[in-house]
Amino acid sequence: MPRWTAMKSKFGFTDRSFQLLEELHANNNREWFQPHKQEIGELLLDPFADLLEVTTAKLKDARRPMIGSKQTIFRLNRDVRFSKDKRPYKEHVSGLLTPSGSKKDDSALLYAHLAADGGFIASGFYKMETKVLNLFRDRIIEDAKLFRTITRKLLKAGYEFEPFEPLKSMPRGYSEYADHEHAAYLKLKSYVVTKPQTREVWIDGSIVKRLVALHKASGDLYQFGMEAMGTSMS
């Protein structure tokens, strides 16, 4: 029987789960990590995989199903080869749900980020290739009214667009749209909305309801983006 069934959707996150993340922040080194590796697995990684699977089941009959599992959780080990920051481990747990169930899926995504302060959830299109990104930008210009409606609904529902290092000036080929009503959006490299979460929603299991609600709220954004790219999620 899956762990999440036995625990009635509480997954296994506890106060100790967040304490582990706090300790990892204070002791980001192999000497601390190795003795705590099993506990991290039991109180962070395993419950996270379970919540992705439960969310997947909840979205099974959605118009645009998304799939997540243990395979769509990001590794805790950091790649420090080309980074000035030599901390060996990430100090959060994160993972995806995508239409294909693969982390390599470059279409729409649903994202969960568990951190010591509670973290956040996110949804949308992240760091698209320039060619694809420009298709999205073109659609914003061509369908400005629809994009305005989509963004206003998301903002009203409490979801904020995360800029993720926006361009300081208009992107190449779009300088004539510097005064466009969506000029700030045209400077983005990602179209992702986020919402902070508390520790309690992970512990009581309501994080799944929040992910499902975000997925539903993002439906028009997904559709807008996929149509811009000439693909479909349905």
From TrEMBL:
Pfam families: DUF2461. Signal peptide: none annotated. InterPro entries: CHP02453, UCP028451. PANTHER family: CHROMOSOME 12, WHOLE GENOME SHOTGUN SEQUENCE (PTHR36452), DUF2461 DOMAIN-CONTAINING PROTEIN (PTHR36452:SF1). This is TIGR02453 family protein.
